[in-house]
Amino acid sequence: MQTALAEQYRNTAHGQRAEDILRSCVHCGFCTATCPTYQLLGDELDGPRGRIYQIKQILEGEQASAIQRGHLDRCLTCRACETTCPSGVQYGELLEIGRELVEQQAPRPLLERIQRQLLIGMMSNSRRFGVLLRIGQLFRPLLPGKLKQKVPPMQRAGDWPAQRHTRRMLVLDGCVQPATLPDINAATARVLDRLGISLLRAPQAGCCGALPNHLSDPERARQMARANIDAWLPLLDDGVEAILVTASGCGVQVKEYGHLLADDPDYAVNALRVAAAARDPIEVLADATLPTLWHGKGPKIAFHAPCTLQHGQQLSGRVEALLTRIGYRLTPVPDSHLCCGSAGTYSILQPELSGQLRSRKRVALLSGRPQLIASANIGCLLHLAEPDSAPVLHWLQMLDRDLAAQAG
Fold it and tell me: Of the CATH numbers 3.40.50, 2.40.50, 1.20.1260, 3.30.1490, which one belongs to the domain with range 300-407?
């Protein structure tokens, strides 16, 4: 795609990077076939190609508007278009640049700005979020149906094995996950303990930064990344071999710390080091020696592959292959490449579109009549869960439970 950047962007890092991405796009339109919002709305401006063109116009000097901001807001950042694109266009990176420019040129109304800052302040702080969630759980029996469904019941983490192995890995605690589903990381620790790996936590680490990054507050995201790097580096120096991230959405963010802090002279090198150490659990367990749990009669499982796992981290099919190898029966999931509608705070800020995508995804997941739905991201798990239906678990919780049952 030919571009003619406006003077104010020509010699900037954002402008040069955006131009490189824009020039790789041949405007073929293959991406529209896998874009969830284009499928729902049928509007070219609500598909990747249309959004790329709008960002191009801004970079060429057109004044951004609230209309363009709305089209960019409706993007889930699922990055299915990146998986589909034959030219390898880095759409997610271009979208970040476009959103930042639009925020500068077309500021949001005051109430929207307050709402976004409250979401960042509440959800990215695990202690603050935990207190608010506990209050909601206390009053959960009194809440109306739809609101009650959005407040997950209290869950306690199981035992965390003592550190006893030579091999050690770190885990990102996260911000929302410790309060809502604390057993995910504990289950991961128990699975790894069986394989001779101790899983450690760094109390000084916090939110990965994905939340403010998606809400057009990149500086807050960079601050969070720096804090995590400071917390993790001493442990990496001490021989910890990897940083496990059990929420695939956070995994994408940590793996992109090198990009996020590329222009920071104090953190650029260490950001690359941390990003290189980040692993999704399937990257550790895919080739691990795990027992066959069943021989042809395992439970029927529908696996929901989060967008951040299959498109963001490009690990499509890896969890499914492992689960099949050890005896689970995976049911078919039509259109498994499409987003469930969770997408961080998208379900809060775009409830109508998110609800439509959720309904479609649940129909697809339940079409094979599974006994259980498994996934790999905290947001998807909470979004897809529904009372009196197939339970929804992280695949590591499921694996831990069944390994323990086999052991007796």
Answer: 3.40.50
